[in-house]
Amino acid sequence: MADETKYALESVFGPGHEAMTQYTPHAQYLGLKVVETGRRFAVMMLPYRPEIVGDPFRKVVFGGAVTTLLDHASGLCVACSLENLEAIATIDLRVDYLRAAEPGCDLYGRTECFRITHTAAFVRGLAWDKDPSDPFATSIGAFMIGSTPGGGSLSRFLPEGEAKK
Amino acid sequence: MQRVLEAIPYAQFLGVQVEQIGEAWRCVLPFRQEIVGNPRLPAIHGGVLGAFLELTAFLRLYAEAGGERAPKPINFSADYLRSAGPQTTYAEGVIFKLGRRIATVHVVAWQDDHSKPVASGNAKFRL
Q: Is A61 on the interface with B (CB under 8 A)?
């Protein structure tokens, strides 16, 4: 059955836009990039840098950076699942490490919103290094929707004139 | 403890420090623009808080039960309790269970009020 829902961020679905991380200082600092967004999913990339590893000899990215990739991608996914722009806040997030991430590799995270209500959204994610069918981590998160009417800062994702504020 | 922290690039990247209080120690995350998630509030990025908690759990375990090899994370779970604003955040970890192969560490992060934590979590590691 086709998804007839009109999503708030529909006009920007597709390959990632600079604007999606431009206004988030930590995303800029970490170098997170949006690869793609669409109906109830998002894909982001965390470029490898020596500054984010745990052990400089093993060169494996520290778990916390993976958590940040999946947390940000999950929040973005919720934004891509809304019909009306509203504020989003993380309630909880759990990351399972299936194996160490490949040293020196850029890391990808794909998140999907599998359930959304007026007040909450549930997102699962997976992170991979070389092959999406061989993830090194998975995540599950719950998000609260709508503590601030008007979409908070999400309207910045939309081209001028399309914000619903 | 300070030396262990200095050997972890990611900890330096986030700006995490260690503070000694008598016999005990805790982790400190000074606020700066680079760790902000939502600049309108401003609020610390959820991923940064999660990472801070994970790092604290790792350090607690390594300090108390560290063998020759660093513990390997199995999973990590964070509860976001309150918005974390533009101030210093502290975190403390407690080893809840230390098995032969698996350890469970509980961590809590707070800002100006220890009884009102901004986030809590628990991390399981393979020893």
A: yes
The pTM of the full predicted model, rounded to 2 decimals, is 0.92
User: What is the number of domains present in chain A?
Assistant: 1
Question: What pLDDT, in 10s, does the model give residues A43-91?
Answer: 999 999 999 999 888 899 999 999 999 999 999 999 999 999 888 999 9
B103's tokens: 């350890």
pLDDT digits (tens, 9 = 90+) for B7-40: 999 999 999 999 998 888 999 999 999 999 999 8
Give the three-class secondary structure for B60: helix
Q: Which CATH number covers residue A14?
A: 3.10.129.10
Please check whether residue A95 touches B, CB under 8 A: yes
ipTM score for this prediction: 0.94
Residue A26: list chain B partners with CB under 8 A.
34-37, 45, 47-48
Pick the CATH number of B2-126 from 3.20.20.370, 2.30.36.70, 3.10.129.10, 3.10.290.10: 3.10.129.10
- Give chain A positions within 8 Å (CB) of B33: 25
What is the distance between the alpha carbons of residues B68 and B2, in angstroms, rounded to a whole number? 18
CA-based torsion, A50, A126, A32, B121: positive or negative = negative
